[in-house]
């Protein structure tokens, strides 16, 4: 694939808004692209019980349907190596833009449509040169990674196994040797509404919630030499309806990035701390939290890195080897200045080719 074709593919992916829950349009484009380039394409709907439905280049899908894409060369869906990334993004949408001749800006340029474009280019080039054949490599592009990984968890229903899975996330073109674990939850307070001029007639849910959040923020959570400190982010807070009304309800969403221990350990620490403050508070622990994740990094020719973010790696079941690599920096992802360079994309293509070659030799 030429550099122009790579940039064009990346452009098409980025210009389509695909905030989590709204991945249909980019999924349709990607499925059409792959089937139009001689890949067998299957969609796996998250809205129906059926999986592995084969589709042609002419898709008939509702605008709201969310689906994963499994694609492979030839007729055999069984392959030795899986190449995977996600097609959803965080909000808000920022349009595609070229700056300074070589910089590509916009939502998803880095996280993770740069990975998707580079992965596709790498596999196409290896097929064109005859280095790989039917049964060697398959693609899996999933939805929902940014909000808990429902797409990758659904992919387990494909009942497929691989020797190696290569995941795409921004790693500054380095090979990640691990990433922090994650525990996410929502905490809710229920008070009693009333006129703010007579606070003794009610009970403020906000006043119930604030001490609890302060306690969570100050928890002494475990650390490790490899992953550093466990960190707490109180990402969203909401409560009450007006300044002159005692808040009847309040809630907050919290994410803990675990540097050591298990999600269950951290959950117990949170619950024990809050029980000393107010036992009336309610918790909703989202998804299946997990501890720090080991990732293979034994392919020569790469610098290595440990990353603080979470990925879909723990959501894909199996005893396959796991690699994490991709263009761009996580430090600009999820921001209004998300961007990478054309050179990043080109280098990533070569990096993915190197990882695929190494995986097939093992």
Write a concise synopsis of the structure shown.
This protein is α+β, with helices and mostly antiparallel strands and 362 residues long.
Describe the structure.
With 362 residues, the protein is α+β, with helices and mostly antiparallel strands. It is 26% helix and 28% strand. The strands form five sheets. A seven-stranded mixed sheet has the order 2-1-3-7-4-8-18. A four-stranded antiparallel sheet has the order 13-14-10-15, covered by helices on one side. Strands 5-6-19 form a three-stranded antiparallel sheet. Helix 3 crosses helix 7 (342-361). The longest helix is centred in the C-terminal third of the chain and has 20 residues, at 342-361. The chain is elongated and about 75 Å long. The relative contact order is 0.18.
- Overall outline: elongated
**Main sheet characteristics:** 7 strands, mixed
Structural category is alpha+beta
Tally of separate helices: 7
Kindly state the number of beta strands: 19
**Low-pLDDT runs:** 48-61
Estimated helix fraction: 25-40%
Q: What share of residues are in beta strands? A: 25-35%
Distance between the termini: 26 Å
What is the fold's blueprint, element by element?
Layout: H1 3-15, H2 24-36, E1 39-45, E2 53-55, E3 67-73, E4 81-86, E5 97-99, E6 103-105, H3 113-128, E7 137-142, H4 150-155, E8 164-168, E9 175-179, E10 181-190, H5 205-217, E11 223-224, E12 228-229, E13 231-239, E14 249-258, H6 263-275, E15 282-290, E16 293-294, E17 304-307, E18 321-325, E19 339-341, H7 342-361
Parallel strand pairs: 4-7, 4-8, 8-18, 9-17
Antiparallel strand pairs: 1-2, 1-3, 3-7, 5-6, 6-19, 9-16, 10-14, 10-15, 11-12, 13-14
């Amino acid at each position: 694939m030429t550099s122009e074709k790579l940039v064009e593919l990346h452009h098409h992916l980025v210009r389509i808004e695909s905030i989590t829950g709204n991945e249909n349009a980019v999924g349709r484009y990607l499925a059409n692209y792959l089937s139009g380039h001689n890949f067998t394409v299957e969609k796996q709907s998250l809205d129906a019980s059926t999986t592995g439905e084969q589709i042609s280049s002419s898709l008939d899908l509702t605008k709201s349907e969310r689906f994963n894409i499994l694609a492979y060369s030839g007729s055999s869906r069984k392959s030795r190596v899986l190449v995977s990334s996600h097609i959803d993004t965080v909000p808000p949408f920022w349009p595609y833009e070229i700056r300074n001749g070589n910089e590509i800006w916009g939502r998803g340029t880095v996280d993770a449509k740069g990975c998707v474009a580079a992965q596709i280019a790498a596999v196409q080039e290896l097929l064109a040169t005859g280095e790989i054949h039917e049964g060697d490599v398959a693609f899996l592009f999933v939805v929902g990674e940014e909000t808990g990984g429902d797409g990758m968890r659904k992919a387990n229903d494909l009942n497929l196994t691989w020797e190696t899975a290569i995941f795409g996330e921004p790693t500054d073109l380095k090979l990640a040797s691990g990433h922090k674990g994650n525990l996410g939850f929502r905490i809710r307070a229920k008070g009693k509404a009333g006129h703010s001029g007579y606070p003794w007639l009610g009970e403020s849910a906000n006043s119930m919630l604030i001490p609890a959040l302060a306690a969570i923020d100050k928890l002494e959570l475990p650390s490790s030499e490899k992953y550093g400190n466990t960190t707490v982010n109180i990402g969203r807070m909401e409560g009450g309806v007006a300044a002159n009304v005692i808040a009847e309800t309040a809630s907050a969403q919290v994410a803990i990035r675990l540097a050591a221990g298990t999600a269950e350990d951290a959950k117990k620490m949170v619950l024990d701390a809050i029980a000393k403050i107010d036992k009336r508070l309610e918790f909703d622990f989202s998804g299946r939290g997990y501890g720090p994740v080991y990732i293979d990094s034994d392919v020569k020719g790469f610098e290595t890195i440990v990353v603080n973010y979470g990925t879909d790696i723990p959501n894909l079941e199996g005893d396959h080897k796991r690699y994490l690599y991709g263009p761009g920096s996580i430090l600009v992802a999820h921001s209004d200045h998300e961007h990478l360079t054309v050179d990043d994309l080109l280098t990533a293509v070569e990096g993915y080719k190197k990882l695929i070659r190494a995986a097939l030799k093992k």
